[in-house]
Amino acid sequence: MQLKSGARPIRSCVFLIVGLFLAVTPLLADSRFVSSNTFLPETTPARDIYYLALFALTITGCLFVVVGSLIFYAAFKYRARKGDPENEPAQVYGSAQVELAWTIIPVIIIVVLFLTTARIIYAIQNAPVPSSALKVTVIGHQFWWEFRYPELGIVTANEMHVPLSTSEQPDPTFLRLLSADVDHSFWVPELGGKTDLIPNHPNEMWMDPQKAGVYYGQCAQFCGLEHSKMLIRVYVDTPAQWAAWVHDQKQPAVDDPKVAAGRQIFETQACVSCHAVKGTSAKGTYGPDLTHLMSRATIAAGAADNTPANLFAWIKDPQTFKPGANMPAMQLSDQQIEDVVAYLTTLH
Ligand code: HEC
Ligand SMILES: [Cu+2]
To answer: Residue 308: enclosing H or E segment and its boundaries?
Structure first.
């Protein structure tokens, strides 16, 4: 059958949608594929934002249906028919009522949306900070996250732990967001809105996650070459898990004499000018704190699982996982890297 010219774009569209679907399906089946969803809020601020979004979507959805139906109705009812006269139809100029209606109704809608949005922003930003609140300083770096818990003396990277906050035992976490270099944006959709980390301009946000588990987020600002590999993991811990995590993180680094060779290489290389390991001469802050490296599931802000093989490959050449990462290939021999990895894997 001969295709009518109008069918061609439709056919390409169908091909495109089916193609995209087929391309994404294997990703969804892959267990490493993690996702986040703004429509599954788990904190008070995220829920407020969610209801606001539903409200705005309902209003704009109704508008879409009304305007769309009118367009379809008019286009169908007044379509060109065989035998229609060739000359222009009668021209109609202006209607005060109609023009007033389509000015006043949108203004009312905009005012309602504006006021509800302002109310929600105000409620989230001015929430009182309870004295029991956990305070975490989040520092965005090209291309990883630093998490500091000043009251607990804990410093970690890329994987943040926060306590569960229930109505019986409210335990909210207040974040202070800073940047070490350029603009970044902290966004864990289930836990709250997106907030930028701007150099010399501290921002704040808070969360009171009500369901334990791991939540995924991502730097939502194009902060440089490896912006897409700047993932965030937030572990919402039950009281027992939280106590155990805090206890472990407060410990000094394990000092295992069996890996003295690796430790010696680590401490005599430039590693120490960029990385800190509590209780050793390594005091650098340019890169992630490695004191409890093995307590993290991933390395390099979620770019790879934290396994000895990946640590080896990372130290050999960080660019293989993350082209653009700000850690140089250190030109160590394979034996030296093996020793360093043996040392790093003791840092629980
Ligand atoms: C010039 C500074 C610099 C030097 C020198 C350096 N690193 Fe790094 N390192 C970084 C930065 C920056 C990152 C974060 C990269 C990213 O995720 O984008 C990093 C990441 C890491 C990570 C992953 C940590 C995590 O939790 O994600 C390990 C492990 C590591 N470095 C080990 C080493 C070792 C071992 C050496 C020495 C042989 C070394 N680094 C030398 C800057 C440095
Ligand atoms: Cu970023």
So the answer is: helix 308-316
Give the confidence band of 321 by pLDDT, cuts at 50, 70, 90. confident
CA distance linking residue 118 with residue 284, whole number of Å:
43
Residue whose C-alpha is closest to residue 348's, from 306, 285, 300: 306
Q: What is the mean pLDDT of residues 309-334?
A: 94
CA of 275 to the centre of ligand 2 (A): 19
Top-level class of domain 134-249: mainly beta
**Main-chain phi, psi angles of 303, to 5 degrees:** -70, -25
- Report which protein residue has its CA nearest ligand 1's atom 32: 315
Closest CA to ligand 1's atom 37: 271
84 Cα–ligand 1 center, Å:
76
Distance CA 198, CA 73 (A): 50
Please answer whether residues 238 and 211 qualify as being in contact, where contact means their C-beta atoms are separated by less than 8 angstroms: no
User: Token pair for residue 230?
Assistant: 């700047």
Virtual CA dihedral for 318, 322, 324, 326, nearest 10 degrees?
-50
Half-sphere exposure of 33 (CA within 13 A, CB side): 7
Which is higher by pLDDT, 90 or 55?
55
174 C-alpha to ligand 2 centroid (Å): 20
Show the ligand 1 pocket: residues with CB < 6 angstroms. 143-144, 157-158, 226, 266, 269-271, 274-275, 286-288, 290, 293, 296, 299-301, 311, 314-315, 322, 325-328, 330, 332, 340, 344
Largest CA-CA distance found in the chain, in angstroms, rounded: 98
What is the assigned CATH class of domain 257-344? mainly beta
Distance (Å) from CA 216 to ligand 2 centroid = 15
Do 257-344 and 134-249 fall under one CATH topology?
yes
Residue 194: burial class (beta carbons within 10 Å; 0-12, 13-18, 19+): middle
Domains of the chain, residue spans: 39-75+95-127, 134-249, 257-344
Which of 274, 293, 298 has most ligand 1 atoms within 8 Å of its beta carbon, as the pocket-test mutant? 274
pTM: 0.87
Ligand 2: distance of its center to the CA of 281 in Å?
29
